[in-house]
Design a protein that fits this description.
Layout: H1 2-37, H2 42-51, E1 59-62, E2 67-72, E3 82-87, E4 93-98, H3 108-114, E5 127-132, E6 135-147, E7 156-161, E8 169-176
Parallel strand pairs: 2-3, 4-7
Antiparallel strand pairs: 1-2, 1-5, 3-4, 5-6, 6-8, 7-8
Helix pairs in contact: 1-3
């Protein structure tokens, strides 16, 4: 009876640990799997943005990696989009902080749209759109820099964590195309 009880406990513990491990693996890889199954159609996204008439919601859109998030100056925007930490002399966003890994309560599709999970897939020249105060601004990725401090105030910079818990950041410097 004692050996059966111990064996049953070990089986239960094994099942629980397998469940926890499966959950962790899902959390880590679900945005990557979603991206592979349903990659963003960059051309279609760009055409939609360029023809969009409702510019009432401030947004950051990165077609090549499927990002489409709200942005704003209140820190609360960091919870579901981009937090504008600084404006330039023309009152346009100049520094935007964005989470990379998101939260466990959002879907893989939301992690793609509302985080910079796929920031490492960005390339120089990729288009980025900022809808700000009723205007649509177009940028291109100028440089991607790893570090702990923003490398330049000269360009619009979006940044995120390099690792899940780290002071290392990935800074994406954007150069204006249309102003």
């Amino acid at each position: 009876m004692g050996k059966r009880f111990i064996k049953a406990i070990l089986i239960i513990i094994s099942i629980v640990l397998i469940g926890i491990g499966s959950f962790i693996i899902y959390e880590v890889f679900s945005p990557e799997i979603e991206y592979k199954i349903n990659p963003p159609n960059e051309t279609e996204i760009i055409e939609t943005i360029e023809s969009e008439e409702d510019l009432s919601i401030n947004r950051l859109i990165i077609p090549s990696i499927g990002v489409d998030m709200k942005i704003g100056q209140d820190r609360k925007f960091l919870d579901y989009g981009g937090w504008i930490q600084r404006l330039d002399s023309n009152s346009l966003p100049n520094l935007i902080a964005i989470h990379r890994f998101g939260w466990s309560n959002i879907s893989p599709e939301q992690k793609i749209k509302q985080t910079l999970y796929h920031v490492t897939k960005l390339n120089e020249g990729d288009k980025v759109f900022i809808i700000w105060n009723g205007e649509n601004y177009e940028y291109k990725v100028k440089d991607i820099v790893n570090g702990t401090n923003n490398p330049s105030d000269e360009y619009l910079t979006i940044y995120t964590c390099k690792f899940y818990s780290s002071d290392q950041r990935i800074f994406v410097q954007l150069e204006s195309i249309n102003y």
